[in-house]
Structures are given as structure tokens and as C-alpha cells.
Amino acid sequence: MITLRHEGPRPTWGFVIVSVPRGNSGDDGHDVKSERMTDSESGPDLTKTGPEDSTPEPGTDGDRPLVVVEHVDKHFGELHVLKDINLTVNSGEVVVVIGPSGGGKSTLCRSINRLEPIDGGKILVDGKELPKEGKELAKLRADVGMVFQSFNLFAHKTILDNVMLGPVKVRKQDKQDSRKHAMELLDRVGIANQANKYPAQLSGGQQQRAAIARSLAMRPKVMLFDEPTSALDPEMVNEVLDVMTGLAREGMTMIVVTHEMGFARRAAQKVVFMADGQIVEENTPDEFFTNARTERAKDFLSKILTH
């Protein structure tokens, strides 16, 4: 872990991690911490970021498991929050995890790179099991981009410097190359004109887009999103979902915890429904939203799709 001098509220900086600070409650109640874009809006392809990027082109390697969760259990004291979880996410696949609050969605997301330690089972990223700690864990974490509901940009650095920081400090990339790539990413998420401003000068939606660009700057193999729009004002939600939809269209492997059912219908290849710490059902968006198999899922959908 690299220690960076920071004045003001200190975010959790874990390589490409954008994490919720302690004191904010995640989906599980544990103290942790839009439409498709048009071709004219799409900008440079974020999944084609140079020779170091191992993300396959859409459709070229879609059957290769990139994230595998096997028989994972997790407790918070006596509370059993993850119960024998099994999930496979293939390269280039977008998996959207939905369900009632307290169902285990956020804990699963945070467990995928051991921001939350697990009590049993195993998790593999690109064929390698996540170690419990040490340099090997740090190396694997650098391949997993994370964006959470709290953007946590470094307040004393410009937006451009925030995006450049990981590649320069962690990947040891040339500063000039990192600056060029950072500007391309900021242009891609629609805030290149904000590059020299500080986080406090941006809206919440702009800050979240900057957080996405910061994670993408590390050229991750997979992106995790834990309710990235839940802290935003309603009018800012679509601008973030637009960026995420563009990433999905371009073939980025994504695991997204969200309450945005429109995004799930539009962007996901697979919908996973969680409740009471278990995966109750998984299916394609069309099948899940029109023909859910379980009574628990049907009850959930009946309550959220009628309002």
C-alpha cells in the first residue's frame, strides 16, 4: 500500500480503489467505509488503452472466466451476510446485482478484492486466487477498478492529478504518458474542461465521473461499481449511467450493484438477484424482468416496478 500525504478528509486509496469511508453505511447496513450514449458522444474506446491493457475486444474472449466466486461465506459477528455464494463473471460480461437493502450485495462487491475478508470459500481474479494480504494481493487489486457511492477524490489535488496519481505512483508510468492518457479519459467521461479544477469545484456527478476515470487510468481487467449513483441528486444520475453504459458497450468486464433497473435492463448480460445473503436467482435481463422464477424475486419486482 502506498502512503500518500493528504490534507483534509482522507479517502481510502488502495491502488485503483475508490472506497466508502468509515462512517458511511453500505447496502448491508455494515459500517464500511439514462440512455445509451450516441456515437458522437462515445469518444476514444476506453477498453483499448495500449499494450499494457489486457481487456479483450468485445466478443473475442467472452467465455473466459475473469471473476470466480466459489462457496463464499461471510459473517459480521453473528450476522451471516454471505451464504455459500457462487458466481462466475466472464471476460467482457456485465453482471448487475440487485435486491433489497441488507441482502449482501455491497459485501459481495467489497469481498471480490478482499476489502472485506471472507470466512470461507475462495475468489479468483483472472485465474488467480486472491491471497489474504501482502504484495500479491496488492498486485491483483491493481487489476480491479472500484467505484463506490462516495467518490473520495483527493481534495488538495486537481482532477487531472487525481487521475494521473495511480498510474504514476503504482504502475510507475511515465508522467507525460500518464497525463496524455488521463486527459483522454477525462474527455471520454465528458469533463476534460474540468481537468485543472479541484473536486470541491465540481458537481457530484462530475466528481463521480472523475472517480471512474481515475479507476480506468489503471487499465483494470474488471470494474466493480457499488451503487455509484445512490449519493447523487436525481438530475446527475443519468450522466454517470451514460458513462457506465458506454463502458459496457465497449466490452469492459463489470460487476454493478445498483437500484437502477433501467441500467440493468439496458446494459447487463446477466442479472443476479440477492436477498438474505444468498443469490436467489440469476438470469438474462429480459427473462428476469418479464418472467422471474422465484417468489422472492417476483415480490421484489412487484414493489419496485409499480412506482
What does this 3D model show about the protein?
- The N terminus is likely disordered.
- This protein has 9 helices and 12 strands.
- It has a single domain, classed as P-loop containing nucleotide triphosphate hydrolases (Rossmann fold).
- The protein is of the alpha/beta class and 307 residues long.
- It is globular and about 55 Å long.
- It is 30% helix and 22% strand.
- Strand 11 and strand 12 form a beta hairpin.
- Helix 5 runs parallel beside helix 6.
- A 6-stranded mixed beta sheet has the order 8-9-10-5-11-12, with helices on both faces. The chain has a 4-stranded antiparallel beta sheet with strand order 4-3-6-7, with helices on one face.
- Its EC number is 7.4.2.1.
- It catalyses: a polar amino acid(out) + ATP + H2O = a polar amino acid(in) + ADP + phosphate + H(+).
Describe what is shown at a glance:
This protein is an alpha/beta fold and 307 residues long. The protein is built from nine helices and twelve strands.
